[in-house]
Design a protein that fits this description.
296 residues, 14 helices, single chain
Length: 296
């Protein structure tokens, strides 16, 4: 893929990191509004609004309006295999990231940046529109209050511990994701090799997240989330920091991609276990707000 974080590309590494972080933070910042709209009109309306935002170029808003209403729905349909279902769903971001990493790079080289963005918007718009129209929920049965900011939940120690873990996990994830290309340059890797690292992270994500779901169902959601968070810190210290070659960096990208997103796999099942299905949307809204600041 072309490197747009160089002087020739017209931007600096910090610009790349800030833009990526803002995308995450805006998506989570709108969680209370999206939760309230979902309570009033159901999940389909905000998801359709998200499709419009995303295809119009407002990616942060689009992600927030599409993802936030949908993440609570999956846990409503599963009990015994809830984490596996969330793991398979979360692996979709890895597969999509892998496909788009190479596809967009090829389009930029052979067409143009503008048309690459347009084609990406059209493809994601069609897929997300289909998902929004087909999605089904069980809110009529469960009747969750879906509060945008439920202060009562903040009085519980287990909720505060969950939010603290979410904050720290996201801080580490965002730092790692948007530091890899700059790190690649620091060890004299080529721009194409640095860009390929993002694809290897996505590959690890696609492989690792369903596996985390299986282990979470078998050994416990809290235990699995804590273990993989610890393992991720070990890979940073043992593999990333000493890395001086492309091969070792690829190993880190794949291994960290597999376990880095443990938050996205387990936050739904963890919230369901701690708050129950009734409080799940309200607790998730607090979780999204807690990761807004570290995402920046």
């Amino acid at each position: 893929m072309p490197d747009f974080t160089s002087e020739e590309g017209g931007s600096l590494p910090v610009d790349y990191a800030v833009i990526g972080g803002l995308n995450f933070s805006i998506a989570t910042l709108v969680a209370p509004i999206v939760t309230i709209i979902t309570r009033m009109y159901g999940p389909r309306l905000p998801m359709l609004m998200g499709v419009v935002f995303q295809t119009s170029g407002y990616c942060g808003l689009g992600v927030g309006f599409i993802y936030i209403p949908s993440i609570a729905i999956l846990s409503q349909w599963f009990t015994a295999k809830r984490s596996l279902a969330n793991g398979i769903s979360a692996a979709g971001s890895g597969i999509g990231g892998l496909v788009f990493s190479f596809a967009v790079g090829a389009m930029i080289r052979n067409i143009s940046v503008a048309w690459s963005l347009r084609i990406t918007g059209i493809v994601t718009g069609i897929v997300n529109l289909t998902a929004a129209l087909l999605i089904r929920h069980r809110n009529e049965v469960i009747q969750p209050p879906q509060r945008g900011f439920d202060v009562r939940l903040l009085r519980r120690l287990d909720v505060l511990l969950l939010l603290a873990w979410a904050f720290l996990s996201t801080l580490g994830q965002i730092t790692l994701l948007f530091s890899l290309p700059d790190f690649a340059r620091s060890i004299q890797l080529s721009p194409s090799q640095g860009a390929a690292l993002s694809a290897f992270v996505s590959l690890g994500t696609a492989i690792g997240r369903p596996c985390i779901g299986v282990l979470s169902d078998r050994f416990g959601k809290i235990e699995t989330a804590g273990t993989f968070t610890f393992l991720c810190s070990i890979t940073v210290l043992a593999i990333w920091l000493p890395a001086t070659s492309y091969g070792v960096t690829i190993l880190f990208a794949i291994s960290s991609g597999a376990i880095l997103g443990v938050f996205w796999v387990t936050i739904g099942p963890l919230s369901a276990e701690i708050g129950g299905l009734v409080e799940l949307p309200s607790l998730l809204s607090l979780a999204w707000l807690s990761v807004t600041l570290p995402a920046v």
